[in-house]
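agent> step 3/5: call structure_predict on target 'FCGR3 protein' (Prunella himalayana).
agent> reason: downstream docking stage needs a structural representation; sequence fetched in step 2, passing through unchanged.
tool.input:
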Amino acid sequence: GWCPLSPAGALTTQLLVEPPWRPAVLWDRVTLTCHGLGTAGATTWYKDGQRWGQQGRDHFTVTEGGTYTCDRAGSGLSPPITVLDDQLVLQVPARVLLEGDTVTLSCRG
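tool.output (status=ok):
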């Protein structure tokens, strides 16, 4: 399933990540999807703070590490997602975690 990395409300632009692990890592073939008000064709993508070449698409598979955000005219800029290009990562499920939750950690390389 798709998991938002922000608990923001439905009227806020959401940047969703698949597979749903945090941090996202490049060799996982990460797909980012922008959800928000307005049409998918109106999506503007940013990588490391700069307008980026995937304009007009609501989703894509990441091919470069970096920090990504998307903008939808009806609901604004999403929270950022960082995709790492590291060889070894300790990951947690990409969901809101509360004190007392049982969490599965994954060490992957």
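agent> step 4/5: record observation. The mean pLDDT is 85.
agent> proceeding.
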